[in-house]
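FIELD: query
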Amino acid sequence: MSAGASATSAKDTGRDETEEERADRKWVELIQEIRVAQTGVQILFGFLLTVVFTPRYTQLAHTDKTIYLVTVVLGACATGALIGPVSLHRLVSGRRVKPQAVQWASRMTFVGLVLLLATMTSSLLLILRVATHDGYVPYLVSAVVAWYLVCWFGVPLWTRRRHTTD
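FIELD: result
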C-alpha cells in the first residue's frame, strides 16, 4: 500500500488501517456486542419456552395467551437475528467479502435489537397483566419502553450526532 493510500485511510477513519484491517476490527467489535445481546435474548427466550408447560398457563385469559404467543414468536425472531451474524460469518469466511459481511451482520444485529425490544416489551406487559390486573400496567410498560428507547437508541444517536465530525 502506498503512503498516500495509508494517509487517506488514516484521515478518513482516524486510524492507520487497511479496509481489511478495518473490517476485521469492526467484526471483532460487533461480535462482542452481539454476545451481550445474545445472552439476554437466549435467557429470556428459554424462560418463555417453559411458561406454556406450567399449570398456570391454562388459566390465562385469551388476551394473555395471545400476548404470550406473540412474545414467543418475537423472541424466536430476535434470537435468529442475533445469531444470524455467526452463520453469515461462517458461510462467507475466506471469500474476501468481510467488509460486506460486517455491514450485513450489523444490520441483522440492529434488527435483532429492535426485536429484542419488542420481546422485552411484550414480556413485561404479560407479566404485569398477570401479576396485577391494574389499569396502570400500560403506562408502566410505556415508561419502561421509553427508558429502553433512550438508553438503546436515543443516547447513542445523540452521541453520534454531537460528536461525529465531518
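FIELD: remark
Residues 5-11 have pLDDT under 50 and may be disordered.
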